[in-house]
Amino acid sequence: MQTAVRSLLFDEQVEAIFFCTNTLAIEGLKQIFSLGKKVPEEVDVVAFDQSIAYDFFEYFIPHINQPIKKIGEEAVRLLIGQINGKITGAARICLKADLVTQPLNEGKAT
């Protein structure tokens, strides 16, 4: 991971990195910090899925929230349909995901 992050930051000089999982994002952020880069001043980061570990960073990590419950419901519905012979072949399901760019409780009194 360090080689990939170093290549992106120094060879390619990217402005932002999108990590496709929260686990990769956490590891990638560790590598970015170890290379002396500042987030978000020098490189922006966006991740897929939220992690409680993001709460330990000084800045908010933008992330894409997936509708996990709905994904599970659709998977079960398709599986039952296949078992009962009502669904054959491939199925395409599109569900809405949300890009979260600021803390959900920002501006609210606690």
Could you please describe the fold and organization of this structure?
The chain has three helices and four strands; from the N terminus they run H-E-H-E-E-H-E. The protein starts with a helix and ends in a 10-residue tail after the last strand. It is of the alpha/beta class and 110 residues long. It is 35% helix and 14% strand. 10% of the residues are buried. Strand 1, helix 2 and strand 2 form a beta-alpha-beta unit. It has two domains: 65 residues, 3-Layer(aba) Sandwich (Rossmann fold); 38 residues, no CATH class.
- CATH topology of the largest domain, what is it called? Rossmann fold
Strands in their spatial order, largest beta sheet? 1-2-3-4
What Rg is obtained from the alpha carbons, in whole angstroms?
19 Å
Strand elements, count:
4
Structural class: alpha/beta
In percent, how helical is the residue content? Answer: 25-40%
Order of helices and strands: HEHEEHE
Instruction: Give the number of helices.
Output: 3
Biggest sheet overview: 4 strands, mixed
Number of domains: 2
- The shape is elongated
Mean pLDDT: 89
CATH class descriptor of the largest domain: Alpha Beta
- In the CATH hierarchy, what is the architecture of the largest domain at level 2? 3-Layer(aba) Sandwich
